[in-house]
Design goal:
- By secondary structure, this protein is an alpha+beta fold.
- The protein folds into 4 domains: 137 residues, 2-Layer Sandwich (Beta Polymerase, domain 2); 82 residues, Hydrophobic Seed Protein, CATH 1.10.110.30; 154 residues, no CATH class; 37 residues, no CATH class.
- Helices cover 51% and strands 11% of the residues.
- The protein contains 21 helices and 13 strands.
- A 5-stranded mixed sheet has the order 1-2-5-4-3. Strands 6-7 form a two-stranded antiparallel ribbon.
- Strand 8 and strand 9 form a beta hairpin.
- The longest helix is centred in the middle third of the chain and has 22 residues.
- The N and C termini lie far apart (62 Å).
Length: 453
């Protein structure tokens, strides 16, 4: 906060003010212990005026009056008070009008919980419309007219769902749901990258199962993930008594939340060198990607059910050949639609296609089982399998524990083995050609893999 005070003092020299807005105010009023919020600053100074006293390293959107100012080792996004005029494709303002009025700036914001300002010098909140009561009463409300706010920026539909569930907020008006549902088609006009970014933020929050119910309620899932939206139409069989696939999927997501929380609390290698003082930036980014991978995978792990749904003469439900259908659906439809990276695509594809076969490990040939357990994604596969096994009725914990025990024993065995490399074979058999070297290498290493001394 000291650097912000310094920036405020510099702006004061030209008779301009500075306030903190957005996440900081929200978290402080709610008294959340979480300190992982962005510092967003607003001022009545124009970018040209800011340049007189601040070190501006970048003008993010010159026409939108936003600058990046550097103070010592920190960078801050500072936006001039403004009024948005119309919008382009329900996302970006077509024109921005400068204002020196904090009250006017507040009127253009999305929700009342994001329209509270904080003066770091006086340590007081500025609340022009008494909206702080909404935060204190845990209510989410659009600023003024909901229709106008959504038509200015359709992404606010997803942000509404995210904030509502992140903070367990009550909806200010029951008519919101009907209006949100009516305007959901506007999201199709936005870039899929922005949609995916918001959906990922929703998925990463521990209240993700409730948020998914809200997304389904206003038809967002039907629009972007119809394979998930329809899961409530398909019942389970005697091996699953959770009534339908949608209920099972939500239960699995809740179990994955617990698994992720446990790993965060117990796995010290993920912490930075500073230990309890925090996460290194690299490790935090890696862990965030890992969480997203696990949650995306468990969300998608049963989407193949609906194309293979059948009812037999004994009235039992079956989903034969679902794994092959799933692979085709994921690679040809879902991954391209949501523009998953190759890294995410490859691992999700591996985990889902292998997670049923993993149950056969106790009865597999030793070579086949060990090659599967040596796969770089196998430990993530086990986490998905755990969530799937723990949240089915009846539970399948015994099978999961058996596989885990086999894997743990194998990890100890693999420590005693030394495998050959390409250079080892080339040195020992210089007469062999490229393909022959690979064949010999594979044969020798497979023998080492299965033989225990």
């Amino acid at each position: 906060m000291q650097n912000i005070l310094t920036i405020q003092d510099k702006l004061k020299k030209i008779n301009k003010t500075l306030y903190v807005v957005w996440g900081f105010c929200r978290e402080q009023i709610l008294r959340n212990k979480n300190t992982d919020w962005d510092i967003d600053l607003v001022t009545d100074a124009t970018p040209e005026e800011m340049k007189q006293v601040l070190k501006i390293v970048w003008e993010v959107w010159k026409k939108y009056w936003t600058c990046i100012a550097s103070q010592w080792w920190q960078s801050f996004e500072i936006t001039t008070f403004r009024k948005d005029i119309w919008s382009i494709n329900h996302r970006k303002p077509a024109e921005v009008e400068f204002t020196n009025s904090l009250e006017e700036d507040a009127k253009r914001r999305d929700f009342t919980l994001n329209a509270i300002y904080y003066n770091p010098k006086t340590k007081k909140y500025i609340d022009p419309e008494n909206w702080i009561n909404d935060i204190q009463n845990k209510i989410i409300r659009f600023v003024w007219n909901i229709e106008n706010r959504i038509h200015e920026d359709a992404l606010r539909i997803l942000r509404f769902i995210r904030f509502k569930n992140k903070y367990n907020l009550k909806v200010a008006d029951k008519n919101y749901w009907e209006i949100l549902e009516k305007n959901t088609p506007l999201l199709k006009k936005l870039p899929i990258e922005r949609i995916k970014q918001e959906l990922d933020k929703i998925l990463l929050n521990p209240n993700n199962a409730k948020a998914l119910e809200d997304l389904k309620k206003i038809w967002v899932l039907k629009l972007f993930l119809p394979e998930i939206d329809c899961l409530d139409k398909y019942n389970w069989n005697k091996y699953h008594l959770e009534w339908n696939v949608w209920i099972h999927t939500k239960m699995c997501i809740q179990e994955m939340n617990k698994i992720i929380k446990t790993k965060e609390q117990t796995e010290s290698p993920l912490l930075s060198k500073e230990g309890a003082r925090g996460w290194s930036e690299k490790k935090a980014r890696e862990w965030s990607n890992k969480k997203l991978l696990l949650l995306r995978t468990i969300l998608l792990h049963d989407i193949w059910k609906w194309p293979t749904y059948s009812i037999w003469k004994n009235w039992e439900t079956h989903y034969y050949n679902h794994d092959n259908i799933w692979a085709q659906m994921f690679l040809e439809q879902i991954s391209p639609r949501l523009k998953f990276s190759k890294t995410f695509e490859n691992e999700i594809y591996f985990i889902i296609t292998e997670h049923l076969r993993t149950f056969s490990i106790p009865n597999m040939r030793k070579l086949k089982a060990r090659k599967l357990m040596m796969h770089k994604y196998f430990e993530d596969l086990l986490l998905v399998l755990k969530a799937d096994c723990y949240w089915k009725t009846p539970q399948n914990i015994e099978s999961f524990n058996q596989i885990t025990e086999i894997y743990n024993e194998f990890k100890e065995i693999i420590k005693t083995k030394k495998f050959f490399t390409w250079n080892d074979i080339k040195k020992k058999h210089p007469e062999l050609e490229w393909r022959q070297i690979w064949e010999r290498l594979k044969m020798i290493n497979e023998q080492i893999l299965v033989v225990d001394f």
